[in-house]
Each structure stands twice: as structure tokens, then as C-alpha cells.
Amino acid sequence: MSQALTHLDLGVVSTYPPREDGIATFTRDLLDAVSQTGADIAPRIAAITDPGSYYNYPPEVVWQIEQGEADSYTEAGRALQEAGVSVISLQHEFGLFGIWGEPLVDFTPYLLEPLTKPLVTTLHTVLSQPRADIREAVRQLCARSAATVVMVRVGAKILVEDYGVDADSLRIIPHGAPSVAPVDPERAKVAVRLGGHVVLSTFGLLSRGKGIENAIRALPSIVEQHPNCLYMVMGETHPQVRRQEGESYRQELAELARELNVHRHVRFINEYLRQESLIRYLQATDVYITPYRDRNQITSGTLSYALGCGRATVSTAYTYAAEALAEGRGLLAEFDSPDSIARSVSLYLDDPSFRAKTEERALEYGKQMSWPNVGQQYAELFREVAEGAAR
Questions:
Q1: What is the distance between the terminal CA atoms of the chain, rounded to a whole angstrom?
Q2: Are 349 and 204 within one domain?
Q3: Within a domain: residue 28?
Q4: Lesser CB count within 10 Å: N end or C end of the chain?
Q5: If DSSP codes are grouped into helix, strand and coil, which group holds residue 13?
């Protein structure tokens, strides 16, 4: 399908930097990737702003939505309709388009009521065996969407079997990852002043659901066999968490490391890392760990980045990881089990040839998820939906 026929104005509803969250980062990277395909697609963004915050948004952010204010979603829908965009990309997460509780308060209908433009929805969370109110909210959103994107095959399977969504409306496009050329890990370690260490790492916005405490509890047995081991916990505390409880979780993790006498083997980098710095640290990593506690997590930008850098990974078997690390691309640990994490990490550290083979498979899979490939798939989908609506 030709992409050079006409200009396309793309409406986007999402969080967006400088707001710091995973979906904001994803949306920025996605739009950058789409622009680099050469497709004449210009984004006009309605950014969801968290209560009480002000951001110095870039020019592509044309409108702002006050998160949790129903009228603000309606105003954004009306503005998008009047702006004449050809298609709308909606990056959906329950907490951004409603108030999580029982029952769910869903603001998506307020946004969509004024709109007749075709919609491409990307679902960042798909819950299996959902409550009736969640099931209905997702069903209605998918029915209103010309196409619904999920990032793994199991997400599409859940939508068909648990939600009754039409399979023909679903598209599987992986979470993007940076295109990274392999480098010698020992040289990479020197570049970030980690020479002489066996480096374990986890990155992302810190919150209790990340399960970092279980990785720290795994360290004593790992360090016993590998005394030069260093666990890097990279990333600042999630802004929403910081507002509610300050740095209490990070402080608890540091105290746990002291109690276990592994504090010299844990290093916190309490900042929001730019992509270039993040990649350098990942290239210096021997084993990447995602010890998350949410079994239903359907996406993980951090795991995608680790695979893009060809890292040997240990992860709990949440939905995204179970698929991404299949076929020898990584090791799955039991939930809330430091012993299982320790055994998995040790398998890599005790057998360099096994780790090298895993890294090769991870890197090959990561190439399929590269942002240029993902951007191309989204650009084609946006144009396909816009042209279908025009016909």
C-alpha cells in the first residue's frame, strides 16, 4: 500500500513527555518512529495531564485533558472532531481513562461521544477473566475502534475468548525497542564505571508492584558464589507514587539490603534515565531482571528494551514475559520467590555459553521489535484506517 499519496493528520490521545510514565515514553517513541518511516503523518496530541501538575509540552501537544475530569474528555473529543484529523490513535490504560475501583468509572465514552473519526486503539492492559464492568468497557471501546492493537498474541486470544471481541478487528504489533548494535559487555562496563563487576539490573519507574524486594532477597545466595556481583536498580520513583508516599519504598529496599548484608552489592540510580544512558547501562548488564508481581501485565517497555539490547533476562511469568521469553529467549522465575530468581540468575552466571546462546536469541527477537519496524506497521495501519474511512 502506498504511503506517499496524501498528507495525514493524526490525532493522538495519551500521556506525553515531559510527563513521566511508561505510556508517555511509548507514545513519544512511537510517533518518532512513525515520522522516520517517511510517511507524511503529522500528529496533533491531546495530552492527559495528571491532577495538580503543569508541563511545558512541546508544540505537537495541541490540547490538554485534565485526568479524571469527565468534561475535559468531552472537550478534547469535540476539539479533535473540529480539528479535522483523519484518524485518532488512543493509547488506553484504565487509570488514564477512568477511576479504578469497583465499579470502574469509565471516561472513554465522554471522549468518544462527540467523535465520528475512525479510531485506532492500543490496549496497554488486557485483564483475563475480567469483571462484568471491565469487560463491557473494553468491549465497547473495541467495538468503536476501526482497529485494536495488542502487543502479544495472548492479548488477542484473551480479547476474543474473554471479551467476545471480533478477531478480525485485532492487530498484533509488538512494543517497540531501540535498534542497538551488539558491543563487548566488558568495554560497555568500563564506559559506565562498572568494570570488574558482574552486573544485574532492573530499570523503570519505581513502585511496589515491581517486586524489587524479591530480587534483593535473591542476592545473598548469588553473591556467595559471585562476590563481585552488583545489582543496579535504575529509575526514579513513579511520580504518582512519590506524591502519595514519598520515597518510602526505595528507603525500604535500601534498608532490606542492609539487613541482608548485601547493601554493597545494590546501587540505586534515582533519576529518569534518557534513552542513550539507559542503553549504555543495558549493554553493560550481564543479567536483566523483571521481578514484577502482576501476573496480568500485558506489556513491558523495560523488558522490550532489554531484549532489544540482547540481554539474558530473568523474569516472573507475567503475561508479556511468558510470550516474549519463550523459545529460549530468557528464563522465567516463580512469582514472589527469591529462591527461584537466584537459581535462574545463577544458571546464566555459572554457564557463560548458555548465557551467550540466550543473548543471541533475545537479540534476534529484539530486531523484530525495533522501533523502525514498529513505526512502519503503525504508519501503514493509520493510513489503511484513514483511507478505509474516506472510501
A1: 15
A2: yes
A3: yes
A4: C
A5: strand
